[in-house]
Amino acid sequence: EVLLKDAVNGKTLVTRYCYGKGCVCLINTYAYAGHNHLQKLSAALVKKFAAVNLPDCYLKTDSQEIFWNTRRITENAYSISLLNTDWTGQNSEISAEICCPDGISAKVSVKDREVLTAVFADGKLFIPSSPEVYIAVNRKKVTAHGTNKHLLKVISANGKIEFIELDFSDSPQKEIFYK
Length: 179
Prior knowledge:
By secondary structure, the chain is mainly beta. It has one helix spanning 39-52; strands at residues 2-5, 12-19, 22-27, 58-60, 66-74, 77-84, 93-99, 105-111, 115-121, 124-128, 134-137, 141-145, 149-156, 161-167, 173-177.
């Protein structure tokens, strides 16, 4: 199907073909889509397509300096990893919001050169206070792995926020049950 036509000559600029659960879009130009004359059009199309195809857990931010990705762990669990790539100065922090199913969201501050990995599992969002803590999920429980002492922020669908103190001095693994 034709999505967009050139206003000057009426030729097709963007076509879309949908099959099953997916769609393929083609920008029908003779030049590279990132060419100076096509850059704004291409950026607007990518932004529109990305907005309607967001994963279950995603990031909202005004910054273009945060790289993020999500990974499905189980049917109802996801991890989302964030990296502040603004390395022009020292101690740069960028604000963002992690958005998950069930209306759960959390504002976070992403420090430069530190990966922040949060986990959403069965209606709760787990955000460790340090990249030194790894959160693992299986079908029945969440476990935290690390060293030293850290806090784990847990946000529930009802808006409840709790902090769990993690002390790994006696064991590098702590079980946090959520079912």
